């Protein structure tokens, strides 16, 4: 990298926070995304403030060098993999947490992980009740730019539903504040939909291509301490799908509802069953694992009784294996991360949303793809928000076998097209949706127009709108 550029970066953040060492660059060339090739950046810079991020982007524009923001590096679809020879802006030094207890909100810097935030809020009897299942390392800001979900999302939706406002550095170095904090005289974050259009939403799920988020303001809630854990079995997918919908219709306070086919659940049990203390179980064809929670114990008891009643009315039965949902919930800071790597395969994932009523249709498409391309894989998922279901199909491959890896890439492209055809939608901007689904061309053109206006030199995550 140009020594003059490196010197200008050192002048902004200090020499100790800029590195061009080969071992450091190698570290930042990859993320948790096992199914993607790494790229060696030219330098890594670690700013300590929003203002320093702004000055860095001004320098990057001057030299027209591509920039990749990064925080925890736990993303699974190559979002944090840099451009070859480009600049990584690592945000983990932005650690501020400010609680606005009377406003029921909190502001966190881009370097704060969910684990750190949860520990802080726990001291005040509060929480942000949406957890990505890599929360020990995943930062809040990083999760916002992918619009992530996880335990808690069945009740509260994706992380977007928690966001009250953002501090964002635009690609050209301007600093903006969205939500009620856009008024410097405001007491803090108390309203997201301020000043007209929802500018906050532009940056959620954008993979950082429209700006670098340096702080996030979130809703907080009184921490729940009363829970019910149970599993519900069904012979048909129609019964299981209807059960998930009816729990919503009856306002049962379900924090997390996971949906498993029998063969997939058995696969998970081989990885985590013993650790969760789950004895050998004859699982039915379809299992719904449910966590009910509330601040009031009487409501939890009432909701649990209603869930049992709904299950039995639909022809199902209570399996009475509470260890599964309890394990999912109490281990929510790392469940998915461990389940994703315990088997030892490399894999690529294709997150998307559909509805609980279309669960079987999506599953059939995924199995069709695995059979068509002769690959191994699985999928499961969980209900999310008002009427959505989050799917995360895994496609396994051997990275030492180029033919196997090629089939994985072909299936990933094929699957994006097929899922779109059956009505699935992405919950973030992603290159493979734009590249492989021509029906999204109008959306792509609009995104490119916004990108060109905000980022005339196309320096910030330029790969998002095309290519891998």
Question: How would you describe this protein?
Answer:
With 468 residues, this protein is of the alpha+beta class. It folds into 5 domains: 3-92, Uridine Diphospho-n-acetylenolpyruvylglucosamine Reductase, domain 2 (2-Layer Sandwich); 97-222, Uridine Diphospho-n-acetylenolpyruvylglucosamine Reductase, domain 3; 226-338, Alpha-Beta Plaits, CATH 3.30.70; 345-428, 2-Layer Sandwich (Alpha-Beta Plaits), CATH 3.30.70; 429-468. Helix content is 36%, strand content 20%. The chain has 16 helices and 21 strands. The protein has helices at residues 3-13, 22-27, 50-63, 114-122, 140-146, 153-156, 199-203, 237-249, 262-273, 297-313, 323-330, 335-341, 359-373, 402-421, 431-436, 441-454, and strands at residues 18-19, 43-45, 67-70, 87-90, 97-100, 105-109, 126-127, 163-169, 175-177, 212-219, 221-222, 226-234, 254-261, 286-294, 317-318, 346-349, 352-354, 377-378, 381-384, 388-391, 394-397. A 7-stranded antiparallel sheet has the order 15-12-14-13-19-20-17. Helix 1 (3-13) packs antiparallel against helix 3 (50-63), helix 8 packs antiparallel against helix 10 (297-313) and helix 13 runs antiparallel to helix 14. It starts with a helix and ends in a 14-residue tail after the last helix. The model has no long low-confidence stretch (mean pLDDT 90).
The CATH architecture of the largest domain is 2-Layer Sandwich
Kindly provide the name of the CATH class of the largest domain. Alpha Beta
The chain-level structural class is alpha+beta
Number of helices: 16
Q: Percent helix among the residues?
A: 25-40%
Q: What name does the CATH topology of the largest domain carry?
A: Uridine Diphospho-n-acetylenolpyruvylglucosamine Reductase, domain 3
Through-space gap between termini: 23 Å
Give start-end ranges of low-pLDDT stretches.
none
Largest sheet, in brief, is: 7 strands, antiparallel
Mean pLDDT: 90
Kindly report the spatial arrangement of strands forming the biggest sheet.
15-12-14-13-19-20-17
Beta-sheet strand percentage? 15-25%
Query: How many domains would you count in the coordinates?
Result: 5
Shape: globular
User: Count the strands?
Assistant: 21
| Gyration radius, rounded | 22 Å
